[in-house]
Design goal:
Elements lengths: L15 H10 L3 H13 L7 E3 L2 H8 L3 H13 L3 E6 L6 E6 L5 H8 L5 H13 L1
Antiparallel strand pairs: 1-3, 2-3
Helix pairs in contact: 2-4
Length: 130
């Protein structure tokens, strides 16, 4: 039997709105698993976004490659996450960000072309080192 441990400092906070508003709207189980993983991989490590590979998603969610891709695409198409590709063609890295008040300004700057994908990637890597 699986039992949750007593809450302590190494927990990832999930806003109640995820349970109250998001879960009833998500009809794609893969998207829900990917979204919860996104919360863990970003807010759980005090980051606003992260480069998460499809292979990481597969390993951490237990989903197939296609299910992970479908889930992440569903989340992006429905406005729960936004993405950014950085790097050279063929060696691109895709960064995923939760649509949140925290990332709203950066998302706008990126979409307006004020901040480049490579600069955004560099910022995320610097955030990761802090």
């Amino acid at each position: 039997m699986f039992r949750l441990p007593k809450p302590q400092k190494n927990f990832t906070e999930v806003p109640n709105v995820v349970f109250d508003k998001l879960i009833p709207r998500i009809s794609n189980f893969s998207a829900l698993k990917c979204y919860l993983l996104m919360i863990r991989k970003t807010w759980g490590f005090s980051k606003s976004g992260d480069w998460i590979s499809i292979s990481q998603l597969i390993k951490l969610t237990g989903l197939s490659r296609q299910s992970c891709i479908n889930g992440m695409n569903w989340l992006e198409e429905n406005g729960y996450i936004w993405t950014c590709k950085s790097g050279k063609v063929g060696a691109e890295r895709k960064m995923y960000f939760l649509c949140s008040e925290e990332t709203e300004e950066v998302e706008q700057l990126f979409k307006e072309g004020i901040i480049s994908a490579d600069k955004l990637y560099k910022m995320m890597m610097e955030e990761r080192e802090i």
